[in-house]
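seq as requested:
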Amino acid sequence: LDNARNANGRRALRLPGGDMECGSAGFTAQHESVMQSTEMVERSSYKLEEAQRLALETEDIGQGILGDLAAQRETILHTLESTRTIGSELNAARQTLNRLIATAQRNRLITLVIGAVLCLGLCFWSLAWLKLPLKWNLGLAILAAVMIATCFAVRFKLQ
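struct tokens:
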């Protein structure tokens, strides 16, 4: 009776052994097949769990790398902004220095012209004591001023 019920249940579930295999040999073969299938499912489940663990580990590493890259990007952007600020400040300083140099050169030229006029005037006044004609007096004063200027120029070149 039990065998008939088992066979009927197997037929309903469309399992092998529903018609004629009611003996223990059929049951053992089926049991072995079920065990192999169970082992294969367990191995597959283990491999899936291992793959899932590896994927999560990789995802964590990727998140860490992305965080580091974001921090490095912020650092680079901050450095770029600082470099731009420094560049604009250097340009402003360069323009200020150029203006100062131009003013200094202009003042030096004015000083040299005033010095040359004073030197010429002093030479003319000194030569006026000799009571030479005005043309001679002016020519000698210019010659003396040029000689004095040449001496100063040679002295600055040697330094």
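The radius of gyration is 54 Å.
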